[in-house]
Amino acid sequence: MKLERGRAVLSSRTDGGAAPAVSVVVPIYNEEENVALLHQRLTEALGALGRSYEIVYVDDGSRDRSFARLCDAAATDRQVRIVRFRRNFGQTAALQAGIEESRGETLVFLDGDLQNDPADIGLLLARIDEGYDVVSGWRKDRHDPWLSRRLPSMAANWLISRVTGVVLRDYGCTLKAYRGEVIRPVKLYGEMHRFIPALVSWSGATVTEVPVRHQARRFGKSKYGISRTARVALDLITVKFLGSYSTKPLYVFGFAGLAFWLLAFLSGAIVIVERLLPPYPQAHNNPLLLLAVFLATLGVQSIMLGLLAELLVRTYHESQSKPTYVVRQVVQGGAAGSASQAAGDWPDLLPASSATSDH
After folding, report:
1. Any idea what the Cα angle at residue 82 is, between residues 79 and 83, rounded to 5°?
2. Which of 46, 108, 139, 278 has most Cβ atoms within 10 angstroms of its Cβ?
3. Do residue 206 and residue 310 come from a single domain?
4. 136 near 168, Cβ under 8 Å?
5. Is residue 342 part of a domain?
6. Can you name the residues that pair with 107 across neighbouring β-strands?
7. Exposed/middle/buried for 336, CB within 10 Å: 0-12, 13-18, 19+?
8. Are 102 and 207 within one domain?
9. Range(s) of the domain holding residue 178
10. Side-chain half-sphere of 11: how many Cα atoms within 13 Å?
11. Are residues 140 and 205 in the same domain?
């Protein structure tokens, strides 16, 4: 067991070995009662798959004995890797750390509260084997309070699906599987972990959804609350902007500026018409004149913001040599097997609702 003090990582594996087929990332926050049972069920489920694996636990600044319980698991299991935060940074940061510390070809995210069933990991990996890039769990029979948890979740799922265009029944389910090649380039901030399927779908990843089991919490209490709704809504605005306008921000600011100018023109036209018709009111006493000037100024500012954003986008991409596209495959003509490689065994890109299956 090795402690990398500078990176706050407790490692129980030897670096440099072959990458495992599956990396399971589990964020942990004050789950001391669940850790031992979770690890037992997780190792049983992964062992039954017949694939090489590693488990990356991320202790998100727990204030109970969760880290000690994780160390107990790592002491006897070389497949365990623990990342310990200095304080609580939130689930999104924990998952990002898990992505960066994992080495597997496929990454699986799992909650640490035992409400997700580790036995369902095989269902997700089976769909990955069919050629999908992302497989999202759908808690079809959810065991949570209806008013405080399920109703806000239903509203959020509907809103996120409509805004992003990636239709899923359960964006909030942590149990998801990703190909490493599509998830590792993603950088997560805020509460954006729930939007990962939409983010990777915009870069060409295929997404599907499968029903998974959901169990009532046995130990501890939920860390989620209604207060997250506002943060999710704000993050959704960010995700939509990044997905639709990250390489052309002038469009969103420019269209807003043109709309302000149009309203300013209409207000000014009304002022002129009223000045020409009886009873000929004084233009400087007409509040619409002030409104027209205000809207015209807003229009200029919006256009200027758009131009500044264009400069920032170009600096961002060009200074770091970041491409504005994603390549799935390059086929060299004349090579044996090129035709089959070009065709590939890729699944049809279907809406998530039509690609689900009951178990």
Report:
1. 145
2. 108
3. no
4. yes
5. no
6. 23, 178
7. exposed
8. yes
9. 2-246
10. 14
11. yes
